[in-house]
Every structure is written in C-alpha cells, then in structure tokens.
From TrEMBL:
This is Solute carrier family 66 member 2. It is a multi-pass membrane protein. The keyword Transmembrane applies. It is found in: Membrane. InterPro entries: PQ-loop_rpt (IPR006603), SLC66/Scramblase_ANY1 (IPR052241). GO terms for cellular component: cytosol; endosome; membrane; trans-Golgi network. The chain crosses the membrane at residues 16-37, 49-71, 77-100, 166-185, 227-250. GO terms for biological process: phospholipid translocation; retrograde transport, endosome to Golgi. It comes from Chrysochloris asiatica (Cape golden mole). The lineage of its organism: Eukaryota, Metazoa, Chordata, Craniata, Vertebrata. It comes from the Eukaryota. It holds the Pfam family PQ-loop.
Length: 269
C-alpha cells in the first residue's frame, strides 16, 4: 500500500530525470563551442580554433543520421546530431568571415607600407578548384555548405543502395561514432610530440571527460547500438590520457618553446 502511494511521486520524478538526461544529450555537445564562438566574435581572431574540428564533427554526425535510417536508435541522439551540424556550420561561418576579413586587412597594411605594390584582393579559393593544398581553407562559407551537401548526397545515395545490407549499416554506424571518438587524438599526439600541454585548458579537458562519461553512461543504460558504447568508452580513455599527460608534464621543468602555443581547439562532448 505504501509502495503504491509513492508511485504518484516516483513516476513523474523518473520522467523528469529522463527528460533532463535527454536534453543534456541533445544540447550538451555544443556547449563548449558557445564561449569559443563568442571569443572569436569578440577578438576577430580565429587562429586558436581549427576548422578541421568542424569537418570531423560534420562528417561524423551526417554519417550518424544516415545510420539512423538503417537502424533507428534513441531520438535524443538523432537530435544531437542535427544540433551539432547547425552549430558547426555557425562556427565555420564566423571563422571564414573573420579569416577573410583579416587577410584583406593584411593586404591593405602591406599596400600602405609599400606604395609600389598594387592593392589586390586576396586570392579566392573554392572547393571546386579541387586543390588539395587549400582543402577546407576556402574563402566563402557557401563553399563549405556546398561541399557538405555534396558529401551528404553521395553518402545518402550509397546508403539508399545498401540499406538492406546489415554489414553496411553496422559499418556505417561504427564509422560515424569512431570518427567522433578520434577527435581528441590530435591533441594527444601534439602533447606527446612537444612533451608539453602548454596552451591547453585543463578546464576544457575536464569538461570533455565529464561530458563523455555522462554520454557513455547514457549509452549503456539505454541499450543503444554497441558502436555508441564502445566508442564512448574510447573517448573517455583518450580524455583520461590527456589529463594524465597534463599531470605528467606539469611535474617537469618548463621547456622553452620557439613559438607560442595556440589555444586548444574545442571538442564535442
């Protein structure tokens, strides 16, 4: 009788916790990019943020959405991918605008310093040039959008043709989550190469670790496809390895660097 009397309280509480966890999954991944976006807008300098982060997350989340058509998983994970794609497009937009404006200002300053030179607009780079040296360093935000639309169209068509193949669908899901799981590896390699974590925010890495731990627990408790859980655990291990590097290198005497370290790029939760 007492247990029945508590149901009216426990059931809405459980529903509230479920909604909160789902909301955290949907929007938690974009939270670290909000201060990064505001900082770029404020300083008009995007040098500390690598647009390759956007590339990796765009590819990973497009593949995850395609995976959903072959094997439907939790709706919050689908919405998380949609929100992350929109966030990365916003990051690309502001980075492109700032970079192009800075290049033009540099040209103007060079022209003012040397009166013999003719002022020319910076060379426009487009993804239709198919120049591997300028890949993902294009001059217009529309080039990034067109490139992602082309990738989505090709990947979507291949998925449509192979949607009945269980092997293809499972491989697609693994590629989607594995690509995202590898996002912290470049930072791990950079720290190892320089034997230093100078320029890296410990608070940011702690945010990565807590977010990835929560995400992995969500995967395990909701019995989502195995690819999510395995790659979530891999992300946590990478985060812990970076924290271990920070602890190890902090105990060593500081090593003079020939160039100032750039701030660490943000990462998905």
């Amino acid at each position: 009788m007492e247990a029945l009397g508590m149901d009216w309280l426990l059931e809405p509480l459980h529903q509230l916790v479920s909604w909160g966890a789902a909301g955290a999954m949907v929007f938690g991944g974009v939270v670290p990019y909000i201060p990064q976006y505001r900082d770029i807008r404020r300083t008009q300098n995007a040098d500390g943020f690598s647009t390759y982060v956007c590339l990796v997350l765009l590819v990973a989340n497009i593949l995850r959405i395609l995976f959903w058509f072959g094997r439907q998983f939790e709706s919050p994970l689908l919405w998380q991918s949609i929100i992350m794609i929109l966030a990365m497009l916003l990051m690309l937009r502001v980075c492109t605008q700032v970079r192009v404006a800075n290049e033009l200002n540099l040209k103007r300053r060079s022209f003012a310093d040397s009166k013999d030179e003719e002022l020319r607009a910076p060379l426009r780079r487009s993804y239709l040039d198919f120049d591997p040296h300028h890949f993902w360093h294009w001059s217009s935000f529309s080039d990034y959008v067109q490139c992602m639309l082309a990738f989505s169209g090709v990947a979507g068509y291949i998925t449509y043709l192979c949607i009945d193949s269980a092997l293809f669908v499972e491989t697609l899901g693994f590629l989607a989550v594995f690509t995202e799981a590898m996002l912290g590896v470049p930072q791990l390699c950079r720290n190892h190469r320089h034997r230093s974590t100078e320029g890296m925010s410990i608070k940011m890495v702690l945010m990565w670790t807590s977010g990835d731990t929560f995400k992995t627990a969500y995967f395990l408790l909701n019995r989502v496809p195995l690819q999510f859980s395995v790659c979530g655990l891999l992300q946590v291990f990478v985060d812990l390895a970076i924290l271990l590097q920070a602890y190890t290198y902090a105990r060593r005497p500081p090593k003079p660097m020939p160039h100032p370290a750039h701030p660490v790029s943000a990462k998905a939760l």
